[in-house]
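User: Fold this; tokens only.

Assistant: Input:
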Amino acid sequence: MAEKRGVDEARPYTRMLTAQVRSIVQYRTSFALDVTSQTVFTVLDIVTVLVTFHVTPTLGGFSQRQVLLIGAFTAFAFALADLTVGNIERLSFYVRTGLLDAVLTRPLSAMGQLLVLDFAPRRIGRVLFATGLLTTMLTVNDIDWTAWRVLLAVITPVCATVFFSSVFVIGASVAFWWIDAGQFAHSFTYGGRDFTTYPSNIYQGAFRRIFAYALGFGFVSYYPVLGLLGVPDPLGLPPWFVWGGPVVATAAALIAAAIWRVGLRHYKGAGS
């Protein structure tokens, strides 16, 4: 009975998602160009890492392959979060134009509707590229595979995706109070992505403490990779930090859910 109820509740979202995808992919040339252009952005992030190693043999004490492994975890998690949740960034548009009022009048989850109404399948290319990159980097790096490291390699992309998804939701929720906060939110979503593409120990002072620890970005890929490689933290923090990803991801998800609920209660309508 509960299973049937769950299927019935999911059916409206499935129909909206299917309609959205069909409306986009029917223009095949345009869709192919969009997928290609979106994939290029992720490729360029990795190219930036390669260019960096043309002027230095190591970065923060890490080799090119090790840094690429850090970047691969970030690329995969961010691309998957962007595919599934990233379109929540359009919330400011919905608030500004009053379309959110129409969303709220339907007997469906506001979050669920926003995620499926603007679903962007063109981002799938970024996920596929990042998946191949991550698989390759896990293979070419010298990792002494144990049961614990296999577990770490499996849970890290999941936790990192949850973390980035939460950051997207938190950044978008600012629009409930500050409609034109897009650039401010991007400094944490895309700025956080750039931060986690490289080893955290290359950053200095308050900037590192805020992004790596206070905001939790250091647990997206840096500490898990230390655990996979069996490398002690150059910053001198204890080995158990490599398992901080699930804790940080859970905390981020709870905070995102709380801010989202408060924002919805705060929203009073477009006034038109």
